[in-house]
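agent: user wants the full assembly modeled, not chains individually. Plan: 1) parse entity lines 2) check alphabet per entity 3) run joint structure prediction 4) return tokens. Steps 1-2 passed, two entities, 465 residues total. Proceeding.
--- entities ---
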Amino acid sequence: MNFLLCSINTLKVLYDISGVEVGQHFYWQIGGFQVHAQVLITSWVVIAILLGSAILAVRNPQTIPTDGQNFFEYVLEFIRDVSKTQIGEEYGPWVPFIGTLFLFIFVSNWSGALLPWKIIELPHGELAAPTNDINTTVALALLTSVAYFYAGLSKKGLGYFGKYIQPTPILLPINILEDFTKPLSLSFRLFGNILADELVVVVLVSLVPLVVPIPVMFLGLFTSGIQALIFATLAAAYIGESMEGHH
Amino acid sequence: MANVIMASSKLISPPSISISSVAPTSRPKISLLQVSVPKISKTQLQSLSSSALKTLSLAAATSLALAPPSLAVEIEKAALFDFNLTLPIIMGEFLLLMVALDKIYFTPLGNFMDERDSAIKEKLGGVKDTSEEVKKLEEQAAAVMKAARAEISAALNKMKKETQLEVEQKLAEEKKKLDAELQEALAKLEEQKIESIKSLDSQIANLSQDIVKKVLPL
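--- prediction returned ---
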């Protein structure tokens, strides 16, 4: 108990120094259920940014693309490329899912680093990247699981479950375990990276407010982009894996 | 290291004030506990956190230096793995976003790009076809040029022949004329020759008579 108190004390001091509020949420009650309002608010902003910029850029496509359309075409090519390399020739129907995953996570992560959320004061908790919350990452990871099950089942029917005893039936438990480790690793990788990134920046800023945190901030931007790419690529890889035929 | 130092300094400072503020701090803490107990009961760490809270409240009641009341609040609320309705809501938002982005971004722009790609490819194929056409046209042009050249050379030859014929005709005419004149002149000359020979003959006869007359004196 003393050890617990000590660790609690050091944690508390860390919170006081950094001023970061880890795991604190601004609760709303919806029909007897609690929701994390700060996550919803920031996710709405992210969705608004995505939809708004997409509408603006793709509203009137030109044969010779200009700035915004050019950028969005580049992004679409990139997403198609990722989907194609991971899923294969039948990547077409999965582009919206992979693309939305990538764009939503990417804009969420960068919004946590670039948008001045802290200006808006909440009664409790604080605004941050939506991917900073375990609910968001688990939601995305579960959707990925559903997506690759759907992909496999729609492609091969019940024969999809044959992959569980594929190389040899001895691997059945490991194959079943994989279905749990996939969403778990997906969600915790994203959640941990973004939370740790924001924590590092906040702690550094509170210790040395000038210059020193800037490289870490850039590193954070880099990590955020990489995490979005990893999530999208892995989701595509899982979908492709469940769709590929084992003859 | 700095954290630890700051921690100790922060922990040392509160007790000097805390004695006077025992009553006001303990009252909101009780209310907080009343609020927090049902919330904690939802979490899986019920036994641990409630026991921690009990000890915390005990500690706070006996010696405020160990655990300030604000700490209890933070520990109680620091819920990193706090799953609730946010998760399905985010799922729904994501699916809606996916449908919306598909409607306004992925499908239209993707179709547009594909159409443009195929149009460009078509145009490129068309360019290859026209190069064949250009070849044909060039061949045609070459044939036309050849024909024109042949025509021109034929006309030239014809003209040359005609002019040559004309010239030869004229030349022949002139020659004939000249020949005729020559013949005439020659004939005249011959006539004159004969005439003069005749006159010479008569003169010779006269002269010989005269010479005979003179030489032979009677």
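agent: reporting back. The helical segments of chain B are 2-12, 14-18, 22-42, 46-62, 69-77, 86-215. Chain B touches chain A through 49 residues (CB under 8 Å).
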